[in-house]
């Protein structure tokens, strides 16, 4: 292919969600509700943890980081998706596409590492309760959390460099509602085999490694819980892990379906990506408040204090 006969792409056209013709207004309202709920719900969780001294523990420190993540993650793609649904603009600049790929996979990597960290926290709390505060001290928690966000940054940077070092000089129709590796790579006017192999391996290794570490932690947790003699003790131990396990299923399901299956289905890809981008971040506040008495009590106290007139005393 003679590259001099082609003009470099300066913008991409997002084709949107497959098979959604005529449903744009309904989808816009639906996604707007999920997006606003994700922002407000996770902001409320974060502020509740920040304002409640009883929640200043490693478990809730990591939950606060998850709330911050769930504010950022839907903000990568949802505003542009809703803009396209109302017919404003379905085009995105080359730089905007680069930004979407970078932030999507930076935050995606951070999410995997963060869930692994939360599983390790539960493992230490249940398997080594007497040493928990020593092992998971503030310095360790800070170090692990910074490493989590830096790890996501490195992950996203590698993938973005691999994808956009390739030339894009012909087609610019992105067969999705946002820029992601599979759909963008298909538009490159050069051999993409190396980028496909490395990106597939990178995403696969990160997701699989985190999943195996989480599985190892929970295997040890289950073994320890089964050794507890009282049924009440076992129930309480399981209840502290149930919310985290629910979130893991919601996160890893879409990753497996989109990235780790051999055949591609545009409709299934769209459904799974929408669920991962918009729905899951809005569900986490419900998952972690409905199944956690400490968070519910702290949230009630924060809302009660906020509702009191200024200067009102107990």
UniProtKB/TrEMBL annotation:
SUPFAM superfamilies: Family A G protein-coupled receptor-like. It is found in: Cell membrane. It is a multi-pass membrane protein. PROSITE patterns: G_PROTEIN_RECEP_F1_2. GO terms for cellular component: plasma membrane. The chain crosses the membrane at residues 26-47, 59-76, 140-164, 203-226, 238-260. InterPro entries: GPCR_Rhodpsn (IPR000276), GPCR_Rhodpsn_7TM (IPR017452), Olfact_rcpt (IPR000725). Gene3D superfamilies: Rhodopsin 7-helix transmembrane proteins. Residues 41-288 form the G-protein coupled receptors family 1 profile domain. GO terms for molecular function: G protein-coupled receptor activity; olfactory receptor activity. Its main location: membrane. Keywords: Cell membrane, Membrane, Olfaction, Receptor, Sensory transduction, Transducer, Transmembrane, Transmembrane helix. The keyword Transmembrane helix applies. The keyword Transmembrane applies. PANTHER family: OLFACTORY RECEPTOR. This is Olfactory receptor 10D3. It comes from Mesocricetus auratus (Golden hamster). The gene is LOC101841704.
């Amino acid at each position: 292919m003679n590259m001099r006969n082609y003009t470099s792409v300066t913008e991409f056209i997002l084709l949107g969600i497959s098979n959604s013709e005529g449903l744009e207004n309904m989808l816009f309202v639906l996604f707007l509700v999920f997006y606003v709920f994700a922002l407000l719900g996770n902001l409320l969780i974060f502020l509740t943890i920040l304002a409640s001294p009883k929640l200043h523990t490693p478990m809730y420190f990591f939950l606060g980081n998850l709330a911050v993540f769930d504010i950022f993650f839907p903000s990568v793609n949802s505003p542009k998706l809703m803009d396209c649904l109302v017919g404003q603009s379905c085009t995105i600049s080359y730089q905007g596409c680069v930004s979407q790929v970078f932030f999507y996979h930076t935050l995606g990597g951070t999410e995997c590492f963060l869930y692994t960290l939360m599983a390790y926290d539960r493992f230490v709390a249940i398997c080594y309760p007497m040493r928990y505060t020593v092992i998971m001290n503030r310095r360790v928690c800070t170090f692990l959390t910074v490493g989590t966000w830096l790890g996501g940054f490195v992950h996203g940077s590698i993938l973005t460099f691999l994808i956009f070092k390739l030339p894009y000089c012909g087609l610019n129709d992105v067969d999705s509602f946002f820029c992601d590796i599979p759909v963008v790579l298909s538009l490159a006017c050069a051999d993409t085999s190396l980028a496909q192999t490395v990106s597939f391996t990178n995403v696969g290794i990160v997701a699989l490694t985190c999943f195996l570490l989480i599985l190892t932690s929970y295997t040890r947790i289950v073994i320890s819980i089964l050794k507890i003699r009282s049924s009440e003790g076992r129930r309480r131990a399981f209840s502290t892990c149930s919310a985290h396990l629910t979130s893991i299923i919601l996160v890893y399901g879409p990753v497996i379906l989109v990235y780790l299956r051999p055949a591609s289905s545009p409709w299934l890809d769209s459904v799974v990506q929408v669920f991962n981008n918009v729905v899951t971040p809005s569900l986490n506040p419900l998952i972690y408040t409905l199944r956690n008495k400490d968070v519910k009590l702290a949230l009630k106290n924060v809302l009660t204090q906020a509702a009191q007139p200024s200067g009102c005393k107990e």
